[in-house]
Amino acid sequence: MHRLGLRAKILAGAIALLLPLFALELYAIQERFETRRESARAELARTAGAGAVLVAQIFGDLVALAAEVAAEPQIDELSEKELLMWLSRSAAYRETVDNLGVIDADGTFRAALVRPPGSDVPGPGSVPFFTDVRRAGTPLLSDVFASEVLGGPVVVAAAPLVAAEGLAFAALRVAELARLVRSLHPGSGQEIFLIDPTGRIALHTAQRQLAWQQRDVGSLQAVRDAQAGATVYVEELAPLFPAGGIAVLAPVAEQRGWVLGISWSRDAILGELEARRSRRLGVFGLISLAGLVGAFLLAAWLSRPVRQLALQAHAIGSGDLGARVHVRSRDELRDLADSFNAMAEALAQERSRRETFVAAVAHDLKNALAPILTAAQLLGRKLEGEPEKKRIGTIVEQTRRLQRMITDLSDLARIEGGQFSLECGPVDLAALARGTAEMEQTRTSLHRISVDARGDTTIEGDADRLAQVLVNLINNAVKYSPAGGDVLVEVVGSAAEVEVLVRDEGLGLSREDAAALFVPYVRRHREAAPGLGLGLFISRAIVEAHGGTIHAESAGPGQGTTMRFALPRSRPG
Question: How far is CA 213 from the centre of its chain?
Answer without folding.
Answer: 55
